[in-house]
Amino acid sequence: MEMSNQAIPKLLELAAHSLLSNEASAIPSLEEFTVDLFPPLFTAAFAKGHKKALTALVQAWPFPFLRLGSLIVQWPNQENVQAVLDGLEAFPTHRACLRRSELRVLDLTLDFEQVQRKGVSEALAKFPFWLPSTVKAQIPQAMARRKPGEDVRKGPKQPWEPVELHIDLFLRGPFKLDTFLSSLLTKVEQSGGFLRLCCRKLHIEEMPFNSLIGILKALELNFIQELEVFDWFRALSEQRLFATQLGRICTLHSLKLAYYHWSFSPDGEGSSSYFLSQLSKLSHLRKLHLSYSYLSGNLQQVLSCLQAPLHALEIRSCTLLDTDINYLSQSLHATSLKKLDLSGNNLSYMVPGPLDTLLGKISGTLQHLDLNHCRLKDTHLNAILPALCCCSQLSSLGLSDNPISKAGLLSLLEHTAGLMELKRVLYPIPIECCVYLHGLSWGPVNKGKLCQVQAEMQKLLQTVQRADMQWNPPLPSPLPVRLVQLD
To answer: Signal sequence span per UniProt (predicted)?
Structure first.
């Protein structure tokens, strides 16, 4: 009787559990195992918390790649991960198995979709420094083609090769370095180059500056693709040191900076000039997000230093002027932008004029547009409608917290119904349903009137045969008071 393909993995899993029931005898036998037994044996050891077995398995791992993300989500246990890291020793003095490890990449990143399906459990909260990744790590092609025991480097085989630790870090204050992360950084520092800490996504906020620089120095900067820093750098020395580190991240694809203290000077000698000189080194930068930073009249200085056109630009609450919008519409970025977010800037006096001109310039590529709380009224919306209707690739539009009437919203829906790619619209609560103060919705919302507006929108969507479009008002704010955008 032939064994089914589904039965083979089940038998391997049962064999793994059987071996681990006598951990002391299983570990010395690792060098006799076939490579097919290692994955189910490792999974079983991780699930049951066999720490000694995990350490030994890593030291004898017959493959170049080991990903822990799915196991961490399913069985979140720091001690298990620590046992795996304990197996990463450059020159172990005592080994339970003489089999040489082929491991070159240990991937600790989490899969965002898997986390969403499982839900964020209390146990997962033990790993606050892992940011669920929406980008799945790929095995390098050279590693994917490599067989166990095969050395891809030319020349004689070295006794030890470096191991990359892939991790996404989310560090948020009030900052106190996690014990586990602290020990990991110490292990990397003391490995003498054997362990390389590779972070694709790095998010830092409210961290002491020395700790931030220490983290950056511990990482392989050429591996970072997405960097988010939400903090103040007031001291000139701090700004220059951070800029120096930033300029070394040659592979950076996305940069987010919030609350950055820009210091422009007419002669170009300000601290921001040095920052921009380092920013110009980031030839792979395609996404730039700046928020809550005073940039009035200086957007040209920031964007003109970039070597290549941006695909995504978010400049939120930066008190932009019409000269900034004028420059953007004439820059090399205008014909490449897929995402533009100007939320939190007062754009009311730029229509008609700079804003509709900009929308016309970027209409060929734009897919996502956010103009939330920009003080736009019906007259402004009518002025930008012709340019907006030319954005044939637009798929999402955000207009929340703009004092627009019900009639203005229905007109917008009717005019944009021809944009077949437009599926999601976040519209503001109409002025008939709430009070607006300083351009932001304020006070209680008349839910009865809002429901009537929603019903009219649904009816109009059916009339124009666009049931695939989702028009939604913003969710109610959990805070009784909102920040007011300064003039």
So the answer is: none
